[in-house]
Write a structure and sequence with these properties.
Mean pLDDT: 84
Distance between the termini: 18 Å
Number of strands: 9
Shape: globular
Order of helices and strands: HEEEEEEEEEH
Strand content: over 45%
Helix content: 10-25%
């Protein structure tokens, strides 16, 4: 019974996400008092995400802004990514900006990369000619989540 309820909730959210229309100023905020940790975790938004907290998992959105106190470990995939905090993993975006306070250990795939003086960057940077290959396919990501096995463990 619990499994059926979880599957029904997942189907409801996936259906709502597919139909969602986003205004230009839609923004989801993960505040600095929030920590999100999960194996295989994927946060997906058709709008913008502002991260001031801690995330271990993947983040996909139109635009992702990582605040100065934020820590993100995983894949960051968006049209535009602005980093002022700490990132480890992979960044894929058309435009990536590393603020002077950024501390990034990652592979960055980009069309445009800006690194301000003072930013710490260790890893690989690869410039892609075409922007299309860098854009996240948010609907496809939701489809993957819909088909992924869900394991519920009681505390």
């Amino acid at each position: 019974p619990r499994r059926l309820a979880i599957d029904a909730v997942r189907e409801l959210y996936v259906t709502q996400f597919a139909r969602a229309e986003v205004s230009d100023n839609a923004e989801s905020v993960i505040s600095k008092d929030l920590m999100i940790i999960g194996t295989g975790l994927c946060i997906i938004s058709k709008g913008n995400i502002v991260i001031d907290g801690h995330i271990i998992g993947d983040v996909l959105a139109e635009k992702i802004q990582i605040g100065q106190e934020a820590v993100v470990s995983g894949l960051i995939h968006a049209r535009n990514v602005f980093v002022a905090g700490t990132v480890s993993g992979t960044i894929r975006a058309v435009s990536v900006s590393l603020n002077a306070t950024a501390n990034v250990t990652a592979e960055i795939n980009h069309h445009s990369l800006t690194i301000q003086a003072g930013a710490m960057f260790e890893g690989k940077s690869r410039r892609c000619e075409g922007e299309t290959e860098l854009l996240p396919n948010l609907d496809q990501a939701v489809d993957r989540v819909e088909r992924a096995p869900f394991v519920f463990k009681e505390a």
